[in-house]
Amino acid sequence: MRRKIVAGNWKMNNDLSGTEALLNDLIALVPNTEATVMVAPTFVNLFQAFNVLKGHNIEVIAQNMHQEPNGAFTGEISAQMLKSVGVNTVILGHSERRAYFGETDELLAKKVAAALSNELQVVFCFGEELEDRKSGRHFSVVEEQLKNALFHLQTSDWEHIILAYEPVWAIGTGETASPEQAQEMHAFIRKTISEKFGDQVGTTVSILYGGSVKPTNAAEIFAKQDVDGGLIGGASLKAEDFVAIINAI
Ligand code: PEP
Q1: How far, in Å, from the CA of 127 to the mean position of ligand 1?
Q2: Nearest CA to ligand 1 atom 2
Q3: How does strand 5-9 pair with strand 229-232?
């Protein structure tokens, strides 16, 4: 189903008391909205995040997971572990996972499959680097990322996939894709998915934009036809800013 979604990726920020404080601020400020609001605290605070948000309309999601169900993978977290604390949605393929932890499309294909087989919804991130855009390769890079990590899926799996187009050059840089650049790429992504999986999937998959979304630019990006919301990093760490972005949708 094509939903409006605003998701905050807190990355490696906020200890336990910081997590509780930000969640309580959000409880006070997040408006009643038809959009789905999600926040992704660090693993160790997921359980407490569910406690704090009990009865509130904010979904707690995870930032990553390992592809194996269990075993000798020191420091890793499995899908089943996420499920056991109440998580239903996991972010996979974030550019920081790709850049700093060597996650490849091939590995991500396995992670996506593991998430889906554990009935987790996936927010799948992808996007081109600055050099790709400068050299005009951005469409082919994005198409390859989608093909390599998601083209093994069944049509029915797409009910559980949310796409997040995040041009790497716009993440945490203050540099944002223009609304026109975002729309152009989102339309391309929708077309690519439609061609492989059919129009029903292409027209119903939610495609979020991520990359320096702020209260000042959210409305014009979200107004674009093929943009269904945002994955928000830095601006999701301040309740007022995150709420202003939610209001922009
Ligand atoms: C992100 O990390 O997914 C992101 C979009 O970060 P920022 O909003 O800070 O650019």
Answers
A1: 12
A2: 233
A3: parallel
Q: What six digits make up the tokens of 42?
A: 């660090």
Tokens 């309740």 appear where? 239
Region 195-212: what's the mean pLDDT? 97
Kindly give the number of the ligand 1 atom that is closest to the alpha carbon of 234.
Answer: 9
Tokens of 217: 């630019």
Name the pTM for this structure: 0.97
Query: What do you get for the CA distance between the two ends of the chain, in Å?
Result: 17
Tell me what the mean pLDDT of segment 57-66 comes to. 97
Rounded to whole angstroms, how far apart are CA atoms 205 and 87?
21
94 annotated active-site:
yes
CA-nearest residue for atom 1, ligand 1, is 233
Residue 39 CB burial class (10 angstroms; 0-12, 13-18, ≥19): buried
Q: Is the CB of 99 under 6 A from ligand 1?
A: no
Whether the predicted pLDDT of 1 surpasses 70: no
Closest C-alpha among 141, 112, 119, 140 to residue 129: 141
Confirm or reject: Cβ of 123 under 6 Å from ligand 1. no
Could you tell me which of 185, 186, 176 has the C-alpha nearest to residue 226? 186
pLDDT in tens, 146-163: 999 999 999 999 999 999
